[in-house]
Write a structure and sequence with these properties.
Number of helices: 9
Distance between the termini: 11 Å
CATH architecture: 3-Layer(aba) Sandwich
CATH class: Alpha Beta
Number of strands: 7
Number of domains: 1
Structural class: alpha/beta
Amino acid sequence: MLIANVSPRTAGKTTDSGLMAHALLAAEHPYEVEGYDADHSAQFWDWAQKAKFPFPVHRQPLARFYRTMEKPTGRRYVGIVDCGHTENHPDIADAVLRVADLVIVHMAPTSADFERIVNPPDATPLFEVIERSESHRPDQNPPETWVLLNRCATNARSVKHYREEMDEEGYNVFTATIPRSEVLAQAVGFPVSDAAVRPFATLVTEMEKRGILPT
């Protein structure tokens, strides 16, 4: 399957992409993992080179992503796409969404991230970006979409508030959240530690229980 990690702007999706991929490798029944950097910043790809990731990360920040990537069909294969920001690179986002099996929207529980996703002043709302992909997909349906709340302060009321807000906007929202943490904030560019992977192990477990990941 192919998971597209998306956000309007900086929302930790590159960090999440790298750590989620490592959590999939470290699962009780490990997955085959491959990364795709579809962001012009090339940060996911660069991190993989510097930290010698145990899986390949391909650079593909292309509006023809759906044509250039070969989607593997292995039973427990998971491709992780760090997608270009939808505000700045809608052509890349559109190309990735044409072939994604699952979309994970990354956001902090803040008014700024909520507005960028739901009611941006000068961009297409993310829900509409995802919905418009349906006409280019074989089944004529948009990809399944879930929200991952990250940079969450412990016991903050904002987490519950924005979970409810995104639910009202029609999004599925994971129960698992990613905490605000110096370990996570400084992860990019360095080898991945067990402490950095731990919150994403909880996410992987939830995805398995929900039947989102391949069995």
